[in-house]
Amino acid sequence: MTHTHDHEHDHNHEPDYITLVDENGNESLFQILITIDGQEEFGKNYVVLQPTEFEEDEQGLIDVLAYSFTENADGTEGDLQPIPEDAEDEWDMIEEVFNSFMDEQED
């Protein structure tokens, strides 16, 4: 199955940050790498985050997190929701858009 890259995403060069609070109340700061408009295909938007304090693995890779979100009716930011592991179409789209974004960053 092929997927065209027709999703809008933010190429903002000024980094934005978000603080996430885990179930134990610990706060962690993340940089927002990219937001993806998936409204037309999936009815929600997505965000890919990178911890501001991270360690690369032995291959030089860094773990990133992806969440879905819907904006509040007044246009303000909404809540982040985990993306189900079995939502293969959503994960495929996120991976494709994120990889394209990373390729553009390397140019």
Overview of the structural elements:
With 107 residues, this protein is an alpha+beta fold. The protein has one domain. Helix content is 21%, strand content 32%. It contains two helices and five strands, in the order E-E-H-E-E-E-H. The protein has helices spanning 39-42, 88-106; strands at 16-21, 27-38, 44-51, 65-69, 80-82. It has a five-stranded antiparallel sheet. The longest helix has 19 residues, at 88-106. The two termini are 28 Å apart. The model is unreliable at 1-12 (pLDDT under 50).
Jot down its keywords.
disordered N terminus, 107 residues, globular, single chain, five-stranded antiparallel β-sheet, alpha+beta, 21% helix, UPF0473 protein LL0144
Write the layout of secondary structure elements.
Blueprint (H helix, E strand, L loop, with lengths): L15 E6 L5 E12 H4 L1 E8 L13 E5 L10 E3 L5 H19 L1
Antiparallel strand pairs: 1-2, 2-3, 3-4, 4-5
Pfam families: DUF1292
Protein name: UPF0473 protein LL0144
Family: Belongs to the UPF0473 family.
